[in-house]
Amino acid sequence: xxxxxxxxxxxxxxxxxxxxxxxxxxxxxxxxxxxxxxxxxxxxxxxxxxxxxxxxxxxxxxxxxxxxxxxxxxxxxxxxxxxxxxxxxxxxxxxxxxxxxxxxxxxxxxxxxxxxxxxxxxxxxxxxxxxxxxxxxxxxxxxxxxxxxxxxxxxxxxxxxxxxxxxxxxxxxxxxxxxxxxxxxxxxxxxxxxxxxxxxxxxxxxxxxxxxxxxxxxxxxxxxxxxxxxxxxxxxxxxxxxxxxxxxxxxxxxxxxxxxxxxxxxxxxxxxxxxxx
Length: 277
Description:
By secondary structure, the protein is an alpha/beta fold. It has helices at about 20-25, 45-50, 75-85, 110-130, 140-150, 165-175, 190-200, 230-240, 245-260, 260-270, and strands at about 1-5, 30-35, 55-60, 90-100, 135-140, 155-160, 175-180, 205. The longest helix has 21 residues, at about 110-130.
């Protein structure tokens, strides 16, 4: 079985054929799809969508690209939403949260300070509710790590779409995070990502699509939309890069996902989906 640990299945790109996309993922052997929220306006949407099909799971959080249109009261709303859903087995993490210093308009000044404030406050919620986090990591690795190290303990989770240095990768791994590997790894020019994918232990890697974004190399124009059904082929590409059997790589990354997202692992075990992993 395969797991897509990061899929924006609620995105408008799927409005016309979302059921078909889910069905294709199911047929491909994807047994769990984690749908992260991005802001207060879609908390209910991702929760309801996750409950609409057997493989659906979700995370709640405020994405750094949506911090500018958020207010501090949204953090209180997030806390209330987490408290209301904490007994829901489909809730597996806080996310998508983090920092984005790639977008120039929010990489400095007040906008950057606001990003860091929302990030730190959501890390506190992760510790309060004992949930791992799905981290948005874009040209912000060192600052993300700085704030993680200031906590009394790391919440762990997944460094989504990781593309940092070897030293930064080791720092996230030492803090209990796995690295998210997706479509970017399938491009031969993505040398740094491919090196992490090849050299990092499978007990520290998870598969993801970031659908509908970051399409793998085999999705060409005009059909550039990524889907969760691509996960098995991404797993096969990772196996080829590492020179290992595809089934073993998919099983190992599934086990890693269940370890760093413990509630997901428990839910899948209860469903009987982990007997071969």
